[in-house]
Amino acid sequence: MNAGADATVERDAAFVSFFSGLDPLRDDPTVTIVDVGAQELQGETHIYSSLTRLWPHRVIGFEPVYDAEVVEKSDAGVRRVLPYALGDGSEQLLHVTKYSALSSLYTPNRALRDECDTPKHFHDIVKTLPVRTRRLDALQLEQADFIKLDTQGAEPLIVKGGERYVRQTPLVYSETFFIPFYENMPLFDEHLSLFRSYGFELLDLYPQPRRRAELRTPGAYPALKSHHSVGRLVGADVLYGQRYLTGAEPSAEQRHQALKGALLLHFVFHKYDVVARILELHAGDVPARDYVGMIKSF
Question: Which listed site, 25, 41, 116, 277, has its alpha carbon 20 to 30 Å from 182?
Answer without folding.
Answer: 41
